[in-house]
Every structure is written in C-alpha cells, then in structure tokens.
Amino acid sequence: MPEGVSGRRVGSSAPLASTTLVIVGHGSHHDARSATPVYAHADTLRDRDVFADVRTALWKEAPSPRSVLRTVETDNAIVVPLFIAAGYFTKEVIPRELGLGGQSTPDVDGTVRYASPVGTHDAVTDVIVERAGRVAGDRHLGDDLGLAIVAHGTERNENSAAAARAHAARIRDWDRFDEVRALYLDESPSVGTLTDHFATDEVVLVPLFVAEGRHVRADVPAAAGLAEGSGDYAVPTDVDGRRVWYAGPVGTDPRLADVIVERASEAAAGTDNGSDRALAPSTDRHASSANGRRDSSEMNRRDSTADGALGFRAAAREPTTRSGRTFLRWIEAGRRGTEAGAASRRSPPSASDPEKPRATANARRTRSGGRVMRTWGELQVAGSTLADGSRTYELRHEADRGATPAALDRLDRLRDLRDRVRVDEQGEFRPLRSAPTLPTGWYCPGLDGATLVRAVETVYPATIADWAREREGSLDVTNFRATADRQTGIYDRVAALDRSAVDAVVRTCCVDDACLKRRRWEYDDGEAVDVPRVNGSFPCHEPCSMVLERARESVVDGAPVEGADAPNWDDATSDDVDRSSSRGDDR
Ligand code: SF4
C-alpha cells in the first residue's frame, strides 16, 4: 500500500487496481511544458502499477476532458484534477467538459468519481517547505528567513487565493520560518510589493503553480523584481536590500504523484471531506457507448504494457474495447503488402469504407500469414504474422514507408512515442495533435493488438473511439452553437459569432493543411458551415479548443481573413492566463 508524502497511509489500493485514473490538467496552445507535470506524474503512476490504467486529458490539448472518458477501458474511472485551487476550472469547467453534470451524453458505462484538486491537499504544504529548504540550501531552514508562497489569485474569485492562504497558515503554525506570506500575481497582497511584506534579510519564493510555464518562468520573477521583463535572473538575487531565492513550482515535484494517489483513494473510498468538491462523491452513469465494458477476465488481466515496453509480448493481447477490436479488424482487412504504399492518407476509413467488401478476402490472406497495411492520418500501420502464428504490428510515419529500421529511431515505450509526436520535424510544439505535421524518422515495432491501439491513440488521441462510433452510426456530433453556448470565462464571447464568421474560422482551421480530421459538426441544426469537408481519416465530432481560440480571437480582433494561411498556434495571441476571465484561475 503506498504511503503519502504526509506520512499517512493512503486508502485501500484494491479498488484502484481495477480503476482507470484520469489526470486532467490545463495544457497550453503555446508551451509544451504546461503539460509536462501531467505526463510525468502519469508515467510515474503507470510504473507503480497502482491503477488498472492511467490516462491524461488537457483543457487546451488532446485528448480533451470531453473525449478522454470514451477511451477508458475499465468499468470505473477516477478523475483527479492536477490544478492548484478548488476554483473555476475544477468546480465548473472540468466537470462540465467531462459531462459529469448530466449536460451531455455519458461516455462510459460505469462509475466515474471526481476527486478534489491536488493543490489543496495538506501534503502540498510539505512540498512547499521542502522546496523552500532545497533552494535556500538549508533543509532545516534557519533563522531570519521569510517564505512567500506565490499563487495566481484573482479578486474575481475568492477560491483562487484560498489554497495559498491555507498552506501559509499551516506553515506559520509549524514555526519553521520567521515570516510566512501568501502573495499573488493578480490580487492583493501582490508579489509586486514583495519586500514590503517581509522584515527578514532573506526571502524564499515558492510558486504555487502546477507547471514551469510562463507565469513561473517570467511573470513571477518580473513582478518580484528578480528580473527585468522576461529576462534571465540569478538565484539568489538582491531585491531592495534583501536576498531573494526562487524555487521551482510545486506541481513538478515528484511527490505530487503520491498526492494524486491520495486524492484518488479518497474519491474511491468516499472519504473526501467534501469541503472543496465540485460534485457529489460519485457519478454513476449508465449508457450505451461504442466503448463497451471489459469482461471480468479482461479486467483481471493487468495492462503491464500499458505504457511500458511497446514490444513486450509475454502474452499478446487483443484490444479490450469494442472500438479497439473494430479498429484491429479494419487493419486486418487492409491492403495487402506494399499495395498500401499507394494509399492516400485521405482514404476515409468511414462507414462507407470502399475496402469493406474485400474484408473477407483480405482476412483470408491475413490468416495465411499475409502482410497488411493501412494508413491512419499520417501513420502507416503494418501487420504481419510471427513464427508462433500470432499477429504483430508496426507503426511509423507513412512517409517512412520505404525506410529500413536502421534509418529510423526505434521507440520502445508509449511515453517516448508521445514525446516524439508532441513536436514537429523542426522540434516545434504541436498543440493540435491532428495537424499534418507529424514528425518522421521513427518506428514502433512488435506491437500486439492492444498496444497498437494505445500507440495509435497516443499519436491521434481518441480518434479510434470516435471513428468506431461513426461506423456504427452512434457518433455524437455537437455543433458550433451548442459548443459556444456552454462556454464560460473568456470563451463565452464566441457565442456572438454568426455563421459567416464561423465559416471564416473553419476555412483557416479545419482544412487540409491545418488538420487531418474530417469535420462532422456544423454551425447549428439545419444551418451548415459553408465550407467543404476535408476527406480526413477520422471524424471530428465537435469544435476543438483551437477552433474556440480562433473564434474568440475573431470576436476580439475581427474575423479571420478568408484565404489566410493556416493558423500558427505558437503565435496565437490568446492569453492562457485567462486574465480577462470573470471566474479566475485555479492552476
Ligand atoms: S475543430 Fe477543426 S481544427 Fe479542430 S480538430 Fe476538428 S476539424 Fe480539426
């Protein structure tokens, strides 16, 4: 049984072993580092084998909270928000996007529990103190040292500042520092008047943020007087006659993985104190879905390769979801041998799949040991038969179809594949996973059926589940108007866009050179977007966060110029800080 960072034993791990943990974070359209703590803690917990499976979702990236539950393979899921405060995101945005409030069609046929945010846990207080001691070079924390816990805060939402205040109060009680203050970027008391709040000669700043993003790298140091603008700074730095130390954000601390387990255990046991919960302890949901349940034998077969060695084949596994099995059958019905090399990535494997009538003949070839190939977006999937008769699969960029293994980087873990495809050929961040910018030069060999599905979903999150739903006629499509109407904060203004403005957004975002998904959503019921759909491999069932961002920009800055270049998301003007939100920021 794991032990939490605060020294307490966490709840029974037995229910967790049959549960999928979903870690939800903020993410970014501009900075790959925003999601790093989410992935790092997920990797740690996969290695520990505490949960049946560990999934991640991001507000600004894929898979979104809207999509992640449809990829869950177990009956039970626990969602833990990797956010700092019990505020706007954790109480409103994330539950709404997960569909936990009953506003949308449930995505799993089982139980989903929603935990309290990580940042409000008492154990984070220990992390703050340890971080302060480490950066100041004194783990025992001597005299004449002040501690400033710096959080985002906003005067528009009282909960945003509450976590920092609570941690500061606890540390004050411990009498470890001469002075302890909670300071904020966006409300009083401000980190901009840092030295006014301390009489000590030395002050250590600990940023109460999840990620090493722009706030931590630039905004806090600039406001505290450590750096001019977004320039470099030394640690420690003299500020108004005081020596100021600056620690890393708490969210990147490895012990946050323990806090995530504790939050999940609380939710599983129903022992969450409820003081900062967004929802009732559990939300039972029963609805048909393309996902389907694992049977009990599959449930007991732990996913030892879920994110471990891709080529591990001690027990070749088949996909455990109906959508995964459908996908594998479709792969096996693919073109034989090198014929697939001529297949266009635009070949739509949809309900009207032109290859479907040939499935029986192709399956016969497969059983006789034939090699099959398919393209999926920019991926090439190849299947072949091993000497023991089992099927094995390989994944690579379709542009590398003729490359020898020696010419490619072999990726043996899903996390290596994930990190590789988060950036393009030039190493630039790819916030839109379905952008036609997948890097070349790698391959993943020796995949069994289950791991192939996981690998494809690592490159193109949630696409198999949506594609399978489309094939069986159950894809849930949400049009622009319905998506816009549920938005809050800085995105509520997108509801003001009329159809012609949305047409312009679609012309810049949902087109061949910007996205490989096939848009299925329209402006509204009975009012289509006046832009032809691209012939993408997999469907897009609702406007993504990128389109909402471009829509928001068009409200603020005017409609996009028709025929403009595909959007460069790295240059987008959006402020991830959400400073203009009327609800605040609880990252
Ligand atoms: S909304 Fe448009 S850009 Fe976003 S995933 Fe769908 S098709 Fe692609």
Task: Quickly list its features.
single chain, 587 residues, alpha/beta, Rossmann fold, Gyrase A, domain 2, 6-stranded mixed beta sheet, 5-stranded mixed beta sheet, disordered N terminus, disordered C terminus, binds iron/sulfur cluster
Brief characterization of the structure:
The chain has 587 residues and is α/β, with parallel strands linked by helices. It contains 16 helices and 18 strands.
Structure description:
Strand 1, helix 1 (36-48) and strand 2 (53-58) form a beta-alpha-beta unit. The protein has four domains: 15-118 and 254-285, Rossmann fold (3-Layer(aba) Sandwich), CATH 3.40.50.1400; 123-252, 3-Layer(aba) Sandwich (Rossmann fold); 300-471, Gyrase A, domain 2; 480-571, 2-Layer Sandwich (Alpha-Beta Plaits). The chain has helices at residues 36-48, 65-68, 88-98, 123-135, 159-174, 214-224, 256-269, 296-300, 322-332, 359-367, 414-421, 449-459, 463-471, 480-485, 499-509, 545-557, and strands at 19-25, 53-58, 76-81, 110-114, 145-151, 179-184, 202-207, 237-239, 242-246, 283-285, 335-336, 372-376, 379-385, 391-397, 409-410, 442-447, 518-519, 539-540. Helices cover 28% and strands 15% of the residues. The strands form four sheets. Strands 11-12-13-14-16-15 form a six-stranded mixed sheet, with helices on one face. The longest helix has 16 residues, at 159-174. The protein starts with 18 loop residues before the first strand and ends in a 30-residue tail after the last helix. The model is unreliable at 1-14, 273-309, 338-368 and 559-585 (pLDDT under 50). Helix 4 (123-135) packs across helix 5 (159-174), helix 11 runs parallel beside helix 12 and helix 15 (499-509) crosses helix 16. The chain is globular. It has 587 residues and is of the alpha/beta class. It binds iron/sulfur cluster. The site of iron/sulfur cluster has 11 residues, from helix 16. InterPro entries: CbiX-like, DR2241_Fer4, DR2241_middle, Sirohydro_Cobaltochel/CbiX. Residues 267-369, 555-587 are annotated as: Disordered. Residues 372-471 form the DR2241 stabilising domain. Residues 283-305, 576-587 have a biased composition (Basic and acidic residues). Residues 339-352 have a biased composition (Low complexity).
